[in-house]
User: Fold this.
Amino acid sequence: MSSDILSFIIFLPAVVAFGLMITTRDVNTIRNIAFLTTSVILALVLKIYIEFVPSAGMQFVTNVPWIETYGINYYVGLDGFSLTILLMIAILIPTSYLLLWEGKTKGYWINMLLVQTGVTGTLLSLDVVLFYFFWEVMLLPVFLLIGLYGFGDKVFTTIKVTVYTMVGSLLMFIAILYLGVAYHTEFGVWSFAYDKLMQITTIPYDTRVWLFLAFLAAFAIKIPIFPLHTWIMETYKNAPTGAVFLLSSIMAKLGVYAIVRFMIPIFPDIYAEFSTWFVAIGLFGLIYFGIAALMQDDIKRMFAYSSASHLSFISAGIFSLNSYGINGALYLIIAHAIATGALFLLVGLMQEQTGFKTIKDLGGIAKKAPIFTFIFAIMLFANVGLPGTNGFVSELLIIFGIYEFNHTLGYIGALTVIIGAAYMLWMFQRAILQDRPEGAAELTMRDLKVKEIIGLIPWVILVFLMGLYPEIFINKFEPTVTHYLNDILHIGASK
Assistant:
């Protein structure tokens, strides 16, 4: 099964989802089968993680013709980078189900399964047309989740996020077609495999810049990178908890992943030449979104800005041209997914229980739900980079990387991280710890149930395990980073 295990992991959720569509209407049955499916996938990913050899490059590869006339293949595989994100997805999705357990419909769970097929296929695709196919597949169920199960002006929100992402996807698709034609013109055969497109030498410099920016537009919108962020605030505010979790914890990270997987190998010279600009934009986004977060009263909007701030910091690390920054960015992808995903799920539970959405209306939660408060605090401290947590390790590596890239930008990066801690701790004090004001309505809030605690325990373990023993995880993807720096960018990988 080893040669096809990735295909099984990709398509199992979709097969189960379509099967459930036509076999049963019982929501509990659908939810239980969906949870079992994601648990099976987790077991298979753990098997791969154990068997994976960090120094062996791309592994578990399947490469067979799909649209043979135009050289489009079903080409999937994984290296240390994609393996780490795959493990993150495999852990987060089934455990998140335990926090989304009650009050959901048949369509909700089916769309959650379809999203998993989309994100996994996107992550493991090594043919850019196949990547584009899964990139679109993963978006459609999320649009449906927002449009069907969202809040407020959910129709407008769905239209806005659809327009943004479709424009970016269209630009990327045009760039993909151009690269395919250029490869055919130069070599006389069709191919859309990323490692084949790396060999193109005939595209003029100015055209390569535009192609680079076309890819970047699609990925920057999804991350988001300033100034392509305006869709995220209303989307996070009005989307159901499951959709927000998927967008913030998983899909945004795939935007960063795609930059490393496709843009660096195909456009190494452009990536290196414009790196200073993108590090600066990333740090500006870190500051801008951090200040914006301080000004929010709606707790979901605040976390939306917080997420964008951290993702800007990740983007700065990706463009730092050294192993400190890139390793730190990849590590922060996982750390941020865990912390932010948990926080959005906990905020969703809090809003369902209290009926309040603004920070000023909250307070007194610590007395009502001590276990909730304890886990919320752990994830918050991980998010701000408290020593001993995974957030501290990843942010420290990025700061070192940016400092090595440019001393001035490194100092700015170190100082601006303080902003993130400020608004998070301010929110925690107001919304969770402080007592409710005199005369305020009684707060209705239960503590976490056993299954919700069980769902969050692996997340808590990972926060501290990654924070105290980072080598366990970094050793899996560091050879991949070294390969990118030495073999693709021809830059000595510093450690």
Q: What stands out?
A: The CA atoms of residues 466 and 472 lie 8 Å apart.
